[in-house]
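Q: I have 490 residues here and want to know how they pack in 3D. Can you give me a structure?
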Amino acid sequence: MAGHGGPVGDGPEIFAQDEDFSSGKTAIRIASVAALGGLLFGYDSAVINGAVDSIQEDFGIGNAELGFAVASALLGAAVGAMTAGRIADKIGRIAVMKIAAVLFLISAFGTGFAHEVWTVVLFRIVGGIGVGVASVIAPAYIAETSPPGIRGRLGSLQQLAIVSGIFASFAINYLLQWLAGGPNEPLWLGLDAWRWMFLAMAVPAVLYGVLAFTIPESPRYLVATHKIPEARRVLTRLLGQKNLEITISRIQETLEREDKPSWRDMKKPTGGIYGIVWVGLGLSIFQQFVGINVIFYYSNVLWQAVGFSADQSAIYTVITSVINVLTTLIAIALIDKIGRKPLLLIGSTGMAVTLITMAVIFGQATVNPDGTPSLPGASGVIALIAANLFVVAFGMSWGPVVWVLLGEMFPNRIRAAALGLAAAGQWAANWLITVTFPGLREHLGLAYGFYGLCAVLSGLFVWRWVMETKGVSLEDMHGEILQQDKTAAG
């Protein structure tokens, strides 16, 4: 689920001077609050799942309009991701978190009370901007406040929050449709259950906004805006008194060396784009092109198409999201031990096997008169198992690991611009997969075949182009990356 762009600062390099600075407890608490943006990101992205059929029925729209309504949030997310970094550099990281919370709140009420499909689209775009902003600011802020020994695990908190948000939205969707007797049945105040699915997002939005007042501003931003006494207080909370002035001096030196982030930063002096920028963009696109969000946006529709009832489909969707949370915990446990690259390669293999299995099963399905596939006997059960094993493979690898890599793989000088591009690529790929799926519902074998091919290519891409970052100081890694580019150019 997942992309981000924006101002990831020099926290990890600063902390790399002395790993005994901090027990990490303060960093963990701060990172957990920041990652709540990911919870809203996951909730907002997945809440549409329970409302897909109802929106189509209530507003009398076709598959193309439905695909656009579901994917509209992703257009907003691309805009939010592209702009959040610059805004955070101007007004601060915490202020941007508060803005994201307000956008989520507006989206919750606007979509819940929408009376035509274009109102749904408008407020989904507003929520999407919030998603894009949250997808940038949480990993940026976490990177600026994380000691290197736990950098991978704290970076993975964002993905854990996203999958927890997905689980929360699926569980609440199921509860609301169960209480009403169906997603399109009236619940409270004469409003249908599907509308309450969106309105419920107001609760975590308010929680995120309130908790944003309890965490300190990024020390890097405070130094950049010449608020040195306040930066000193924050760094003391994070690191203790040891080497405090050296740390502040290093931040100041780094800021003096840096120009304002610009898209031009990604161009090499010798011409062309730095190779690492293409690697980041490739990781972002492959993360989406394996079709993970088809499972999370359309799984209710998918399982009903193979013979499960609406209630059964909702239950299976909740189970899938629980599996996603558990496998993300596995990734958090392993990422700083076995490394980023091995996890990605294991994940690509698992995704390829399960997606190709689903492609074969759906390719052989009989088609009902209404155009939906029918999977009689064992084939439906095998498809369900394969779909959940696909989520396991993704959840322990490409879900969290891409977030961590994007946060640490770019050199300081090009980081903001490269992250912005990777974020935009990820949201654009997500939008493309999401908007095309309704038209492919009658050709699921073909759809899963394409996702399976992308899973195979993702493994080859990682094997050839992605370098391991586990245990490597960011400065050493970035020097090596830039040296590789010089060698390639020469």
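Q: Anything worth noting?
A: The chain has one domain: 11-215+259-489. Strands lie at 366-367, 373-374.
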